[in-house]
């Protein structure tokens, strides 16, 4: 396609600039993989001399390490896609490709370096980094990071690993290079060795300085390093054929009365703990300023803002930690999907995403307290509804039964039935495998065949699941984990996609949608977002819009971007304080 030819010309030009490489940020589904394979082949034909490719790698390292070809680092689910694309598009023997994955991978650096292309995963690269593995003992001609937003945390092991690779040219591929904040781009510049902005001190002084000049400076740098085209832009210009229509529908769900009572009790608990957290924070700030001589006396104690019921809760939390607030935030979101989820310990996905362990179960802590409405403190307000005063959070409460259909589950299954009647395929997406498990149990009850693609599925088995779903008549339902299946997969066999729960990061949802809305899709696409009204999900939706605006302003070089971190004001809004 013409847009890919234009991208190839730009890639070859950038490889002779400083720094050699850049960011290919085309929309998902525009063929970034094929474009990079074309770059590898074209440069092999041109036979660049060593003098042309000396940038970005020290001569000392070069004398010690064998010269390798192109290293592709990607999520585990995309290894097969890269290998398959080379086999489909290139004549046999034209490109020598090695999959550096699994137990039988090559151990000798010189033998591995003989390949034109080596494909590996972020997880494996991180493990090798600790032991100075084979990948770090080769002077690579080129390193390509597919789904490069994986390295957005500049302090993470995976970011440190990719930055320590020896390479002459560096490329980042991502349709969503910004997920949360401007700082996401620092990791990209650090990997690209874009001096001086790969230095955190320079970054904080000249870019992350909370003013318009810093934003403009970043926009200018990214405009130089990045090529980005959207599907809509290319369709409007006639560069590519038009895709079918895409429609997004928000399906508002009202919690059942018994679910609403549980939600309100957890919300009351959360608001109380968060209020204590704010109080502690203010006290510590005041004491710090008093130590610096700004105040000469302790802070005056105001009238007690908590009633006796809330004081009972606070007695168990003399020192509230920030991770406890985030745990409550998580549990409120899970109640909206199915109340039984809050009675379980954090699963592995939660731990990976939030970076903490909950310890003692939330439900067990709250169940031990009875919030009695008549226990009002003399100087504190009564805010406890009699509906939430009892011991609701116990295993005896039928609302926590896993077999019970929650209000959101009913809405999902009703819509699913109507889609299946049309003989069309649907993908059901959740960020929690526990939610997918509950949906699977309900599908078994109504005898609807389905398949699952989550992190628990072996990498070698994922390709067969995708091919079966796209080409076979059955199954018509695929349960997809947002984190495991949200990147790189081609699932155009379906034209309906359900997002069961809202994620704090809207870019992950955008990636999931582009699994079915991409070139090759022949039918109109329907996206459904299930949100519980008058809950925390409604507030997260509003915050998502701010995050998407941040990405739009930075990637288009538009006006000043809003801060996208989860701020204290955001939490106050969420908890209604």
From TrEMBL:
It comes from Fopius arisanus. GO terms for cellular component: nucleus. One of its GO terms (biological process) is DNA repair. This is Lds_1 protein. Pfam families: Helicase_C, SNF2-rel_dom. It comes from the Eukaryota. The keyword Chaperone does not apply. Keywords: ATP-binding, Hydrolase, Nucleotide-binding. Residues 13-195 form the Helicase ATP-binding domain. One of its GO terms (molecular function) is ATP-dependent activity, acting on DNA. Residues 414-572 form the Helicase C-terminal domain.
């Amino acid at each position: 396609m013409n847009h890919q030819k234009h991208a190839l010309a730009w890639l070859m030009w950038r490889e002779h600039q400083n720094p050699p490489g850049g960011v290919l940020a085309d929309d998902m589904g525009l063929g970034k993989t094929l474009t990079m394979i074309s770059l590898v082949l074209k440069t092999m034909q041109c036979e660049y001399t060593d003098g042309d490719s000396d940038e970005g790698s020290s001569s000392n390292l070069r004398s010690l390490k064998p010269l390798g070809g192109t290293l592709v680092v990607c999520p585990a689910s995309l290894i097969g896609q890269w290998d398959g694309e080379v086999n489909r598009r290139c004549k046999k023997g034209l490109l020598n490709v090695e999959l550096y994955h699994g137990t039988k991978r090559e151990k000798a650096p010189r033998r591995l370096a003989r390949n034109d292309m080596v494909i590996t995963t972020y997880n494996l690269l991180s493990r090798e980094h600790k032991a100075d593995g084979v990948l770090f003992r080769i002077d690579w001609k080129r390193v390509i990071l597919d789904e490069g937003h994986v390295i957005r945390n500049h302090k993470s092991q995976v970011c440190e690993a990719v930055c320590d690779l020896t390479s002459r040219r560096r490329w980042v591929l991502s349709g969503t290079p910004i997920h949360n904040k401007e700082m996401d781009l620092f990791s990209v510049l650090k990997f690209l060795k874009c001096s001086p902005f790969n230095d955190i001190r320079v970054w904080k002084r000249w870019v992350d300085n909370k003013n318009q000049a810093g934003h403009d400076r970043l926009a200018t740098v990214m405009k130089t390093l990045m090529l980005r085209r959207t599907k809509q832009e290319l369709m409007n210009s006639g560069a590519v054929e038009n895709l079918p229509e895409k429609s997004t529908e928000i399906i508002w769900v009202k919690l059942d009365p018994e679910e609403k009572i549980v939600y309100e009790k957890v919300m009351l608990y959360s608001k109380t703990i968060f209020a204590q957290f704010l109080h502690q924070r203010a006290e510590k700030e005041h004491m710090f300023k008093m130590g610096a001589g700004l105040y000469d006396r302790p802070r005056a104690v105001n009238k007690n803002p908590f009633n006796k019921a809330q004081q009972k809760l606070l007695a168990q939390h003399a020192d509230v930690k920030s991770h406890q607030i985030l745990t409550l935030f998580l549990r409120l979101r899970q109640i909206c999907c199915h109340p039984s989820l809050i009675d379980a310990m954090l699963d592995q996905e939660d731990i990976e995403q939030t970076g903490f362990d909950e310890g003692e179960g939330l439900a067990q802590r709250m169940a031990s307290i009875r919030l009695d409405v008549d226990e009002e403190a003399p100087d504190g307000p009564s805010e406890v509804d009699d509906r939430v005063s009892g011991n609701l959070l116990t295993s005896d409460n039928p609302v926590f039964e896993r077999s019970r259909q929650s209000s959101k589950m009913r809405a999902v299954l009703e819509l699913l039935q109507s889609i299946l009647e049309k003989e069309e395929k649907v993908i059901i997406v959740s960020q929690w495998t526990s939610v997918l498990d509950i949906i699977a149990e309900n599908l078994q009850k109504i005898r609807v065949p389905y398949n699952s693609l989550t992190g628990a599925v072996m990498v070698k088995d994922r390709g067969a699941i995708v091919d079966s779903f796209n080409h076979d008549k059955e199954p018509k339902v695929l349960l997809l984990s947002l984190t495991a299946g949200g990147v790189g997969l081609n699932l155009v066999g379906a034209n309906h996609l359900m997002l069961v729960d809202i994620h704090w990061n809207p870019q992950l949802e955008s990636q999931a949608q582009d699994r079915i809305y991409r070139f090759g899709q022949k039918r109109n696409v329907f996206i459904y977002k299930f949100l519980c009204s008058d809950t925390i999900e409604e507030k997260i939706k509003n915050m998502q819009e701010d995050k998407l605006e941040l990405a739009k302003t930075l990637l288009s070089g538009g006006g000043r971007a809003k801060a996208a971190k989860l701020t204290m004001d955001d939490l106050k809004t969420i908890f209604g304080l």
